[in-house]
## 1
Amino acid sequence: MQIRIRETDFTLLADKALWRHDTRQLIIADIHLGKASHFRKAGISIPADSVLEDMRRLDRLMKQVQPREVILLGDLFHSSYNREWHLFEAFLESFPSVAFVLVKGNHDILKQHRYELPNFLVVDAWEDDHFLYTHEPTEHAQKFVLSGHIHPGILLSGKGKQRLSLPCFHVSDTQGVLPAFGKLTGLYMLERNAKDRYYLVYNGIIREMK
Amino acid sequence: MNLAKIWFAQKGWKPHRFQKESWAAIHDGKSGLLNAPTGFGKTFAVWFGIIQDFYDRPKPKNNKLHCLYISPLRALSKEIYLATNRVSNDLNLAYSVELRTGDSSAKDRTRQKKDKHQALITTPESLHLMLATKGYREQFANLEFVIVDEWHELLGSKRGVQIELALAHLKALRPELKVWGISATIGNMDQAKDILLGPVSENTTIVRANLEKKIAIHTVLPDEIEKFPWGGHLGLKLLPKLVPIIEQSKSTLLFTNMRSQAETWYQQLLERVPDLAGQIALHHSSIDFQTRKWVEEHLHSGDLKIVVCTSSLDLGVDFRPVDTIIQVGSAKGVARFIQRAGRSGHSPGEKSNIYFVPTNSLEIIEGSALKDAVAHQLIESRIPFVRSFDVLIQFMVTLGVSEGFSADSLYREIKTTHAFQSVTPEEWRWCLDFITRGGQSLKAYDEFHKVILEDGIYKVTSKGIAARHRMNIGTIVGNSMMNVKVLGGKNLGTIEEAFISKLKPGDVFWFAGRNLALHSVKDMTAIVRASKEKNGIIPSWLGGKMPLSSQLSSSIRKALTHYKEGGKLDEELKKLKPLFALQHEVSHLPGNDELLIEKIKTREGYHLFVYPFDGRLVHEGMATILSYRIGLLTPVTFSISMNDYGFELLSDQDIDVESLIDNNLFSHEFVYEDAIRSINSSQMAQRRFRDIASIAGLVFTGYPGKEKKTRHLQANSQLFFKVFEDNEDNNLLLLQAYDEVINFELEVSRQQAAFRRIGQQKIVVTYPTKPTPFCFAIMVARFREVYSNEPIEARVEKLLKQIEKK
């Protein structure tokens, strides 16, 4: 689904990522890589194969949209170092011409030397003329803020006491919050307000709520 | 020298016949089950057999444990500890008894390991903790006896499985070990014996006390049933009628079914009778242990006029001053009702006095049903858990943490238990894989680490994993709990984190019988101060909802039929006459040969109410099966609600139930198959999995105040459930969740009986224009299940259509 923010075209992707047309940027929040391995290392048997799912989805998405730059809006890696990081290193190597920028999130606690990779840059925030990229949502006087962190979701309820909760993109006049990319993540339910726009993501579908 | 003879003569008492029988059986080297109620010296019936055995034996050179006494309750352990030590002192016997429970300090525990004592009183969890400690083989090297108290209570829970595993392991260490269980009367006494003693033991017996106390049952009735509520479960309406009962009694225990309800009753009683201040106390499992201990002590000394409590006082030592029991709301089962009644009237020749307080009008019928069921001694069976792989996996890691185990010998041990006798070599291999490789083959990047195999021995080497495991031992799964502590003062107890997290500092809530304002939250502790503000909110604790037993259900159906057929009415049924007349007028009053279905349309949608009177679990299962059968014809989403009398299927579309009935909607064929197929579309297995994941060590809840170390290791069981379903559908823990749903929630055997009965009944469909006396309580119930076989896209579109219209 295509939307326009501050004279700039974006596409909301059903893979829970954002595609910025003018800069050919792929924007992704809260992948939480390494979570499964972090659990397994501590003797908690989350199936090892689930580790690969997010990586495969990421890989497919990269080939599909062919970005020039990938902005990771924080919480790329779930916790302290485990060997799952090497999967990510190999992934970076397979896209040598793409620049990856990690906007550090509260979960990104790896030692600095782990981040020292050729096409990988770690920053606290990233910006250009009109947009500010951060991990946590924040307000900026001039720039439009793109962030993640909260894992936004919407609870739908209706007749027959039916309820469904779904991840969503949340777009206001000043900010856009992305849903969490990673599979092993939860949801935080938003209270809707009339001014903002909400885009539900489910089963490969993006659907705006009116 | 006969120790029992001397001691009883000293006291001037005469032993009961069942005590002599037990002593003789123990003397003959038998294992057995003693069936005796509390309050008649059941402990002594076993105890003197054991100390006599010790006395008759040549003195061992090393003073190692001779007897292990397992009791499910800390309060009970303490009492047994005092009583047995008194015997040793009275007889000047070198037989020292120690106590070890979750409350024992680390210092105590180390001392116990070094010190020489002959008997140890402990809980199932503490026993497993001992097995998780190096040196236990040495400690149990001379063990002769294990006593398991309140076995009827443990049997129907996973704590029973814990006992089975521990006993099998101890028997492997000590093949000549004798095991004695003590149990109240249950429907499956012989099975209870076989499970405890194991299928291989031959030299066994059941000793029956045959001492049943007389019970006087009174139902507290509203003056005007027309003004009595149709729904609700608090029962406060009848509070004024209880005041004289409490005043005329020496000491009263008032049982409620839920903790929040106990809090409310305590508050309301104090408000109504301010003179009770200082003589009234509150007792439930979330209240701080020290406070509970204080309450119990003052119940003993007779200083308390009334204690408002939950199942937390179901078991335990007798409080002699208590002469009256009040049961608010359904007791759910005959055995439970008798057990609670038995907490009063302990002096010889006295009878137990229990008042049943219905909380809504239809519940009055339970008073009539209970009298009938108690008169006919329709006592429920306890259904044992089998194939609880979560408990097995926990146990394997427990042994790994201490001395390690060899796969072959442990497999032989568990095969002797009732719970795991059917485990195949493949399943055993899966369990070993699960703890060593996380269930899957290790990949290059994988660092799974829990139990490792070294020289044929499985063991845990990581200190962190061992420490976390020790903290997690047990099968009672709670939600994440927070300590509640007065600012600069004492602990009050624990409340679910989810409740506290909704409060802001300054918000007032009612807990542990006080009005409190939240001051701040630090780590896992909520700091509070006293508040003068009234009307604080009362926390709710998520607890299991007990279903009505089939014994009590059938007694209710019997009472209903009795009424319809114009039999002689007791006071309860007389009182219900206007209500039944109204039900008959607006809908229909079903007899035993009828099944009533009510179809009602409201603003919320289309309601179908069905009344089998079979208990909430059977109703839940039946509702799921019917949803599945209806869903075969058309994609549908139901919100399901139930109580012990019937259930509701609520939908956003009109269901043509009449033609469905003609098409065998209620067929008793394929009930089992349909039950299995229906589980996938409901959330039952997922809910069951919550406990399983925690027991098997997947979800680490930690202890209040200690959760910090597990940062980044928090995940909810739903996530695991989904990941297992997607990646590893042969996961035994996942399959266990389905099995538990089939056996304990859907109770397929009861289900089949219910469908078969319905097959004989005439189905009556009515179309009331407003809620009926029967449906009202079900309609307003907040806890609901969901069944859906509609594709998610369709559900989203339907919901959005309603939302966006506004």
Note: The two ends of chain B are 88 Å apart (CA to CA).
## 2
Amino acid sequence: MRMNKPIFLLVFLIACVELFPQTFSISGKITDVNGKPIPGVNVIVRETKTGAASNADGYYIISDLKPAGYTIEFSAIGFKKFRRAGVKLTEDFILNVTLQETPIQTEQVVVTAAKHEQNISDLPVSAGIINSDLISKRNITNLEQALRYVPGINLTGDQISIRGSSGYSRGVGSRVLLAVDGIPFYTGDTGETIWEVIPVTEIERVEIIKGAASSLYGSTAIGGVINVLTRPIQDKPVTYVKSLGGFYSKPSYSEWDWSDRTRFFNALTLAHLNKTGDFGISASFTRLETEGYRQSGFNKKYIGFLKAIYDFSPASSLSLLVNTLNKRGGSFIYWKDSRNALVPPDENQGQRTATNRYLFGSIYKNLLSDQLLLNIKTSYYRTSWSENSETGIESTSHLVRGEIQTDWSISERFLFISGIEGIGSKVNSNIFGNPDALSAGAYTHGELKFDFPLLLSFGARVDYGKLDSLKGSGAFSPKVGLNYKLTEEFVFRSSFGSGFRAPSLAEAFTSTTFSGITVKPNPKLKSERNFTFEVGFNYKPLQELNFDLSVFQNEYYDFIEASIDPTDGLVVFDNVTRARVQGLEYQNTFYLFDASLILNSGYTYLWSRDIERNKALKYRPRHLFYGSIDYNLNKLISLGEEFIIGSDFRFWSRVEEIDDELAQFVKDAHLRVPVYVLDLRASYSFPVFNFPVRFSFAANNVLNYNYIELIGNLAPVRNFSLSIEFYLQ
Amino acid sequence: MKTKKIFFRTNLQLLVVFTLAAFLYNGCDKGIAPEPEIPKEEQAGFSGKITFLGQWPDGVQRTHLVVFENPLLSAADFNVFNLKFVGPEIPYGTTEFNYNSVDSFYVEIGAGEYAYVAVAQSKAEELSLNRVDWYVVGVYYANNDTTQPGKLVIPEKTLVKGIDIICDYENPPPQPPGGE
């Protein structure tokens, strides 16, 4: 049969329209009130969740949009958010925008709470944000240092506790999940978080979710989540150099002055970002060296970072992430005694550690349709460390992960997220043995928006895991939350959920002796669980004023802790405790004198109890207070320059309970005091041949207050540092 | 507007007061300080002589004088909380070893009453608290009463002398529970 030619052409054209529907773009230029282009502005089409960032000249373009009505949102740190609703797209649309500057920190986005971007004010749980600017101005070289300034967080050595979730177990089995760009980052053997791997110069923002997040993240997130977002790649090439140098003061007492000279530290970072066509790359290399304020506290670290992104289309991209750490240094476990607080015991003299860690990750994103986003994440984390202690510790672990997630915007009111995840790990160690572990999980999360305006979120996750010869076990972690905007200024939130943490291979299979303490494996170890409840509100009576108050309660079951086995007297990790943590948290921010002066403060009250022993949980302070002042002196200097002085103060009350087992071997272990730390800082930014340059000065622990976080470990004495940063673009 | 100004001023004043208070507080208190060194003659401890009779067994890696606060009635009593003193390593093949707990130790002893004082040997290289690693070769007996371990009483600021132990390889003492 032959078809008539005009009819064939008509059919062909209709088919073309159906198969290749016409699409349009939205583009424009974003400037400030002085007409100066603003780079790095996030432009989001709210209905499709597609977006772009403005380039160095302030231009942006979002392509492949179907004809429809859209709401476009523009946001950038330091500028008021701008939203343009009712953009009818029937042809290519040009939308030029002028953003107004605001020194007041406005609404920001977080990604961690529900594995998708949402405003912080829409969260049903408490959250905290650390911006890269503050990390840089405080001359911080390790993320762990920055976390000490977040309300509700305290650290014991390098072990983090969010609202009393953790005590101290020498890093083994973290109850807080660290993720980098959404990729979980914990070791395959000890399940611990290694903060020093992350190059702080690559951090764009750190988001902290307080409270169990196992309903989305599974094990380890029983106490909260810390998601590190690395900085985005700009269209224009940027080379960044940061050099830092500093020294420690002499200790307060002559007995502690073990070294006859000043102890120095330094750091150097070289970074380069560039984007050519659809391919973008960000690479950095950091070298850190410290002589240490304690004998055997010296080390050298080399951190490598690489992020590469390829955009297959405006809707799909693949990111590759590589993060490495090489570290060699001394080992300081605890002091000789209080008269030799900066010197290790004689038998520990000369101990050395060597560490190599490598993370490889990939993130594939594909917007399959206007409503459906596919997200695939894979990672491989290899760690190896050795210590020439009496036991000659050596351990190598391999951890592989894979996760597939879909975000389905069923309607403007209903978002549905679901995903599956698989994790495998293998360890070769002379103290943990050669065990392996496998686990898998599946999760769903829904968010329903009402007009009232109420945001209801709900979800659940099921997990099943098997640790080598241990019996396999499952966990079900549901969560429900609500967020109610009573007025634009008053937001009420509440959440209830459950979390769990599977034991790490180290907790289940450690067999070693150190400093006289013998640890044996526990083949009967099972997961610990918790139920968490929070209610709170955020109130902004004025643009210059922000209050946040929350009350929380966490009930822990089968808490895993090191304890003495009554049958043989050996130390073993066991499900020994039923615990309860109750508390309240208050935070506020004041912007004064046109936001030249910014005051922040936060107070957390923690009532943490070991219910079975009727004692406080170990290493949990009852009171935590943080305060900071930032004063912007820009009015006193020329245009284009920035001069800010600031101060941070933190107080943690004296911990009531410590490790009795360890205290037997640490002389003067009873010495512990409340923590009072005052830091001062100043930073000055100015252009040199149009290249931004910044000097930052920091004086930490300026009053040289002597305190410990972990018994037998005096915290850093007063130290001073100066850094200089160049941006060549 | 006036209320707002008063509100800010009040809070600012409070903050300044708080900061000054923090300065003052810290100015007075330096936190942890070195514990005063106790003169040797005022330190509580014990001393004596350990005598080894017979041939040392092969494979012994460690020999230590140890003190437990409570009697070793079960393997579980051989634990870190009950162990109150670990003396320095006694060299292999020694026939006589004079010791003073104040001079040298792994775990320091203080004043108090102690139920079990013994010399123990281990074939493990590491200093472990695993009961099966240890074999008791000598026990302190008070007043020549070898029917039960002698009690060690250390008063405050006193060095108790004459805590002598004989380790006879041909005639070993009764072993506490939990050994091999």
Note: Chain B touches chain A through 41 residues (CB under 8 Å).
